[in-house]
Amino acid sequence: MLRHNLLLIYRSFKKFKSTFIINLVGLSTGLACTLLIFLWVRDEMNVDKFHEKDSRLYQVKESQQLSGNIRVMNSTPGLLAEALTEEMPEVEFAATVTPAFWFEKSILSFEDKDIKASGQYAGKDFFNIFSFELLQGDKDQVLADKSSMVISEELALRLFNTTENILGKGVEFQHEKEFIVSGIFDNVTNSSDNSDFILSYEVFKDINKGVLEWGNSGPNTFLTLKEGTDPGNFENKIKDFIKSKHTSTHRTLLLTKFSDNYLYGNYENGVQGGGRIEYVRMFSLIAIFILVIACINFMNLSTAKASGKLKEIGIKKTIGASRTTLVFQYLGESMLMTLLSMLLALLLVLLLLPQFNLITGKALSLELDFNLMLALICIALITGLIAGSYPALYLSKFNPIAVLKGNQANSLGEVMARKGLVILQFTLSTILIVAVLIIYKQISYVQTKNIGYDKDNVIYFEREGKLVDHLETFLTEVENIPGIMNASSISQSLIGGGNTTYLDWEGKDPDEKVFFAIRPVNYGVIEMLDMEIKEGRSFSREFGRDSLKIIINEAAVKTIGLPSPVGRVVNRGETELEIVGVVKDFHFESLQQNVDPMFFILIPEYTSKIMAKIEAGKEKETIERLQALHESFNPGFVFDYRFLDQDYQAQYVAEQRVSVLSRYFAGLAILISCLGLFGLAAFTAERRIKEIGIRKVLGASEWKIMELLSGDFAKMVLVAIFIALPLSYYLTSNWLDGFAYKIDLRWWYFVGAGALTMLIALLTVSFQSIKAALMNPVKSLKSE
After folding, report:
1. Which of 212, 643, 680, 687 lies 20 to 30 A from 189 at CA?
2. pLDDT-derived band at 256, boundaries 50, 70, 90
3. DSSP H helical ranges for 122-220
4. pLDDT at 21
5. What's the rounded Cα separation, in Å, for the pair 712 and 192?
6. Which of 403, 392, 394, 393 is nearest to 317 (CA)?
7. Which of 350, 333, 322, 382 lies closest to 35, judged by CA?
8. Which residues contact 591 (CB under 8 A, 6 or more apart)?
9. C-alpha gyration radius of the chain
């Protein structure tokens, strides 16, 4: 029986070659898209999930009530981990870790090699908390000594060309101090922490005494709870822990599951919410859309070609074939088609995966492990059942007597169902087209918006080595280089929230703490970045030492509430600071956030990055001259620079990738939809060939014939557009709500997307319509 059914399926595929090819291309393309998205979603969902103690691994964060809003920050007091370990019996291990962004890549030297690598300081129980596999070394001892350094396997190969016999070897750090390699850890690809080396936190405490005070925040705190501990109860217990150490603080603590930080990194008024999970949901929905569109093609074309199988079905049912037998036969045809499509889809995925990895910035691979095989089987079964269920149930229910009399074909229910599926296809396709357009417009807006300063052709690099003590001398030499327009220094890249502080002023509620971003700078930074001074002046040597003067932004003016802030005094703790200028608001964080109050303060000795403005068109030769100066002035330190606009664009990497991927997937969705429409148009033209011949004999023009054949499809697509536009407005406006600064949703975005959908559909149908309209009526009216 199985052999008989397989033979029937083979004959069906052979008889309806065009339908078979359309179904195979549509399903395989849809499955390939679904598999690529599945691999990406699985990788995103597994980031940081590899830690053995994942269910008990938490990060402690700070919550602050600021101007009526609750702000959650990763920073915590530097003594918190040690205190929690000593005073809270629920804590198994706790460790303080410095954020990776605190330190740019450092110079590590061994013999004649100088290598830039990223690192962080961590408490001694770091490897008891996180499951980074130690290839060499004892996790209880690798960070127990101040002179210890744990390096990654990749860094070991770069420094020593081997991972064998390197424990105990010395590595020079920043050409200042030697550390001894005490362990080697394995590089993990699906980790949010990609540091090359780790030093003891005790070293950091020695050089940064501020972390020993409970009034300060900065490092991150991670811990594992003992088995059976309720995290909610523990969070309530430690909520006011800082207040017990520093009575004047307003800060409270909260607990978040560490592996949730990657996907749920955004907080709204103190509540953990969105983040990367929004894009995971978006692409999961796109995968479902594309697969549904591909399945609809199969369902439509299978029911459409039913007229060619009616007598076969009638004869089978007359000689005793049950409905169940027929259902299994047509489901078998669907399953076999899905299996062939899945094999072709796997081949497409293997071919497209390298390019897909370039777009997504990942290192995905198609390894057929148990989980992936199970997922493939489930996708194939679900797809086969969805694609084949309606044709199987529809074809098997025919009355054999009515079929053999020729009274069953093209029932109203069949036609309406087919039209409904076409409408659903083009509704989904139109939604995707609108989404692509809105995402593209928003990304273009982000990239071209005036952000309040000139970021073009500005480079920056670390102030290290001799530059620490001879900054002004070096800046003078830099400004003498042809092609350098300005040079100065700043505490960090202009992009990102950075350090924060609190100010007090006359008339402020003493119980209210107001958050300000702070940027220590050198002379000339504001002028170099072409920022607009709205009131007062910039920092200038003409006024003597300006170290107790600050320049605030417009958001700070609104926060302070003083109509004429220039000349007013504010307090930073016990220090009085005079406001000498107001700078126009500029975006130092992404456009997803409002501009926060901030101020510049002139402290050249606190600046850690050197910035230089390069004349446009002379970037290459100017950077080469600057590199030569750096190497001669600061031997042993690699000249590792970045452009400021790179940092700005890096804030929108996720959005840019979404924009590119959505364009590809929307294009494939409309392609698959049009394949089905093409097949239906061909079927319709073939079924009405005699009608067309008669109309032409009676005088109908080719244009009338084309209008006749295209009209029904145009109406279906038009209905789809009317359904899709309000849905797409709702979805895109929700996505844009994630940006504080965004485009306006204009009516022509939606009308344009609808018109494009209609144009593509009509072009698809027109080929078959023109072909049928030009056919010789004599041929079409001949008897079979």
Report:
1. 643
2. very high
3. 126-129, 153-160, 201-207
4. 79
5. 53
6. 403
7. 350
8. 446, 449, 739, 740, 741, 742
9. 34
Assigned token pair, 655: 């959005």
For 376-404, write each residue's pLDDT tens digit.
788 778 777 776 676 666 665 656 555 55
Kindly give the pairing relationship between strand 177-185 and strand 170-173. Answer: antiparallel
CA–CA dist 129, 127 (Å, integer): 5
Kindly report the three-state secondary structure assignment for every residue of 647-691: HHHHCCHHHHHHHHHHHHHHHHHHHHHHHHHHHHHHHHHHHCHHH
Best mean pLDDT range from 272-276, 346-350, 377-381, 701-705: 346-350
Alpha carbon distances (Å) from 465 to 107, 314, 607, 630, 678: 10, 89, 14, 11, 68
Whether residue 102 is predicted with pLDDT greater than 90 in this model: the reply is no
Query: Phi and psi of 505, rounded to 5°?
Result: -150, 165
Phi and psi at 761, nearest 5°, equal -65, -45
Taking the C-alpha atoms of residue 529 and residue 41, their distance in angstroms, rounded to an integer, is: 40
Q: How is residue 83 written in tokens?
A: 């205190």
Strands 504-505 and 170-173: unpaired
Q: Is residue 186 a contact partner of residue 52, using CB atoms and an 8 Å limit? A: no
- Tens-digit pLDDT profile for residues 589-641: 777 778 888 899 998 888 889 999 999 888 899 999 999 999 899 888 888 88
Round to whole Å and give the CA distance between 409 and 396: 13
pTM: 0.81
Output the six-digit token pair for 204: 């950091």
Residue 120 confidence class, pLDDT cut points 50, 70, 90: very high
Helix (H) or strand (E) run with residue 580 in it: strand 575-583
Closest CA to 598 of 517, 530, 662, 690: 517
Beta bridge pairs of residue 305: none
Helix, strand counts (H, E) of the chain = 24, 27
Question: Poorest-confidence range of 89-98, 170-179, 213-222?
Answer: 213-222
Residue 486: which of 531, 518, 452, 449 has the closest Cα?
531
Least confident range of 463-467, 626-630, 710-714: 710-714
Structure tokens at 768: 């078959």
For residues 403 and 424, give the distance between their C-alpha atoms in angstroms, rounded to a whole number: 29
Q: Are strands 197-200 and 119-122 parallel, antiparallel or unpaired?
A: parallel
Enter the tokens of residue 167. 């424990």
Cβ of 555: how many Cβ atoms within 10 Å? Answer: 17
Distances (CA, A) of 706 to 300, 472, 763, 769: 22, 78, 12, 5
Greatest CA separation for the chain: 107
What residues contact 415, with CB distance under 8 A and at least 6 apart? none
φ and ψ of 326, to 5 deg: -65, -40
Who's near 715: CB < 8 A, 6+ residues apart?
Answer: none
Q: How far apart are CA 623 and CA 459, in angstroms?
A: 9
DSSP state for residue 466 in the 8-state scheme: G
